[in-house]
Amino acid sequence: MPAHTLDANLTNKGKKRLALCIVGKVLTSKLVKKDIFIDVMNKVWRVSGGVDIEPIKGNVFAFYFSNEEDKMLVLRGGPWSFDRAIIVFDEPTGTGDVSNLKFNSIDFWVQIHNLPLICLNEEIGISLGSLIGEVRDYDPSVTVDGSGRYL
Prior knowledge:
There is one protein chain. By secondary structure, the protein is of the alpha+beta class. It is built from four helices and seven strands, in the order αβαββαββαββ. It has a five-stranded antiparallel sheet. 12% of the residues are buried.
């Protein structure tokens, strides 16, 4: 069969769609019921432009957003879970080959409690946080609740 070149407009449309896509994997040994998962995630996220959720394979799903704001709202709003299983996201690149996605990291907010006053600063907060993983962000406010002070 002869090789064919895709129309540039079709390729550009695919690139735009891929830029608004994230792929998620529900980390559980049980097979997720696709219809229920899609229904629940649409209700939980309630993004302004909506999201198209397409099952890929097993517990892996593609999420196509209509705008960057909705995509970032979901990525920043996590961690997300379904039926007591964490959902790990990855952003496809290049042609969007899902087999290249790793699903090997997730962001969590961490609170560090019972620090002496001398340790309530950004440098020590980042240093302590880096002991358990990569520190992506830091909240500079010191919070006090019933359990004491924490960063």
